[in-house]
Amino acid sequence: MAHSSSTSGIVSGRLDSDLLEQNFEDLHAPLSKHEALVASDRCYFCHDAPCMTACPTSIDIPLFIRQIATGTTDASAKTILSQNILGGMCARSVQQKLYARKHVLEKWQRVSQ
User: Helices (DSSP H) in 26-72: which residue ranges?
Assistant: First the structure.
């Protein structure tokens, strides 16, 4: 039985597939392989890895980045998913550019003082 968007309660089939796709598409498109390699080249591979300290799931971010840089994407996925079963949400919910970089820059400012 088909349901309309005005059907009360929690029921499946309230939205057609086009509307579902539109409502749940990524805010930002995923990185291409080249973009991921360029982004991985920006990592400083800090000894104390402040990005790991900042990460609420304590993912081994330097290992993950190294795996991206070497083209072992299956291993990088395993690194993320072994610590966080919802690892695919990290890229969608965490502003890595602001979150992790902030901790790295704070570390470098402390070191240079």
Answer: 33-40, 50-54, 61-69
